[in-house]
Amino acid sequence: MKITHVKVRLFEYPMPKTFYPTWQPLPTTAARIHLVEVHTDEGIVGIGSGGVPVRWEIAGLFLMGQDPFNLEQHVANLRSMAFFVGRPWPVEVALWDIIGKATGQPIYRLLGGGSDRLKAYASTGELRDTAARVDSAQQIVSEGFKALKLRFHSPDVRDDLKTLAAVRKAVGDGIDIMVDANWGWRIAPDRQPHRWDLRTAIYAAQAMEEHGVYWLEEPLDAYDYDGLAELRRHLTTLRLAGGELNRGPEEIQTYLEKGCFDVYQPDCTFIGGISTVRKIAAMVQAAGKVFTPHTWTNGIGFVANLHCAAAAERVPYIEFPYDPPHWNPEDRDFIFAEPLRIDSEGFVRLPQKPGLGIELDEEKLKRYEQADTSRLI
Fold this sequence. Notes:
alpha/beta, Enolase-like, domain 1, TIM Barrel, 2 domains, four-stranded antiparallel beta sheet, 14 helices, 13 strands
């Protein structure tokens, strides 16, 4: 089998309701999927998406005529490419999709098997006033989720802590609550005037311990290694989490050496593909830490990380982006034949078809594809 060409396509879905995520300064009025296709001479086409949309089709320059099974070579080449044109890792996901389709196996089984279902936590994305967030949390729990994640990003952290206390009272002690502060990164032009310093992070984290919060994500800048390690030393029951947008395994190794996190959340579409995340999961778990990947890019990125998590050991939860009524599975998976949902026990099941196991809806592809955006090499 040989790779013949790489193609990128753009799909855009007008959101029924505007979504206001905490991590960016502008609202989301349309969901977009940049889809990379890797074509072969045997008619098998691998797909990938997620991460940061860049010139993924450039990968065709060194993939053409190559065997898609030579993954280590391709990862090394893509890693070199990442220094110059951003993060090309959805291309690597597409290669795994080809391999799965060629062998007739879902990716997670090729990675070593593991579980065919994972317990999901509802990962909310917006700041809402206390009453609205309590109503939302109760709805989420009523639908079968055993855990949910709140966003902290208010100008005054005490307002967020008030909401946390109200949500805990509403859902009870049997539901795990995570918190994401979203201070690890900055998206221009947001200057983040209310960014936490170490003292604020310690105050907020210790208050969270009183409410039994399971983990706290990104309380400080992602590269404040010493600050994160110092914060962690002030905690007893609360876990610190991060690593979702890091660029490579070297950064994860630094976190481990300095004792920054208890929970590691690399996203295969950002950090180095499925091959790299598989190795990072082994590093993290060998150090006695928790591995559970970030999944909030789009439906294809979600599924790619789902396969990574299913092949790992002792993954307590998988992130399930969900914040009704502004962010639903139909928005995330808008080009899928059927969106992924949780089952009655709060688990999301792994697709069992070969490769990623995603079935795309041809009518939706026609409806939402943007003209003159595909490039072919």
